[in-house]
Amino acid sequence: MENAQVHERVSNGVAEKEDVVTPWTITRVNDTGIDYDELIKKFGSSKIDDELLAKFEKITGKKPHHFLRRGIFFSHRDMHTILNLYEQGQYFYLYMSREPSMMHLGHLIPFMFCKWLQDIFDVPLVIQLTDDEKGTWETVKVEDAIKLAYTNARDIIACGFNPKKTFIFFNVEHIEINPAFYQNMIRIGKYVVLNQVKSILDFGNTGSIAKGAFPLMQVVPAISSTFPFIFKDTKVPCLIPCLIDEDQYFCMMRDVTPRLGYPKPALLHAIFFPALQGCKTKISASDNNTAIFLTDTAKQIKNKINKYAFSGGQATVEEHRRLGGNCEVDISYQWLRFFLEDDERLKQIRKDYTSGEILTGELKKELIDVLQRLVAKHQEAKSKVTDEVIKQFMIPRDLGFVSKTK
Question: Which of 89, 106, 129, 365 has the fewest CB atoms nearer than 10 Å to its CB?
């Protein structure tokens, strides 16, 4: 396999606790969150460095997205290959997946980035909503998972994807109408051993066979022959923007694809979006106060940030003016890294907070203003996404893909 899950580090003969990252388990050791440089070493991926950013700009003619410039998307597999192919006039396609749930701001991150990728490269995008995953792993009826998927589709479409180049599908429905989907699952499944799946999902012999089968559903969209109505060429490269915890699914796929004669999927990995309570905590669907949800009002956003956003400030105003704040743990600053696009403004905020010139309350107000505008804009766009619009995105159809020349 391309990567291995490591749960402890041995230093001078002593086992030390360290971060654990799997698709279903995320454990942080430090207050600043995951050590992503260490994660790159464990997973065997490559860091998104200045050389790759310069190549992005040279080939696309566009300044890299602030998610790339700030290390929010921090790691990759074979992105150089994708850029080389594009420079030679060969297109690729984008693939994303999402388990249906109540959507919060963190869920928007990969979709905002993927929208930018689609715009600058002008390529097709397939979006998988894993209603089967929701029904398998949680105590949710499949019928309810499908309804939730439709709600998520509305939020996803509101991000502004090109309807002529975007196909959205739900696993439960799509597998019934697209024989190629299940056929490719069989082809891939023949080369995946059970122990590999158990390692990916981090469960023992008590895991259900439904859970064990799910990784095949997750990875099969990463080969173009799964969508014969979009691609006549069965060997179109695929680029997958995703959170780093999904990497293990696609490393399994990257082991298999050469044996089937398909290109390995390339990946761009994002860091985790922290909960309001701090970088060491995680957002919980059962605690509405850990995140800003896409249905929150301006008043709810203000109240949540003021009450729950973990502060990197000092205990008193006097101490803060003297010692300054810690941007590495302050959630208002960390969230501004995601959502404030102006680099110079962010740089100034960091300088002023670190020096003690601005207080935590002022920093929170800056974040509140940014989030209220963002969520209001999203809610307005979502209000225009009708059932008919969703239906159009879900029709299996030709997306105008041209395989060889731009």
Answer: 89
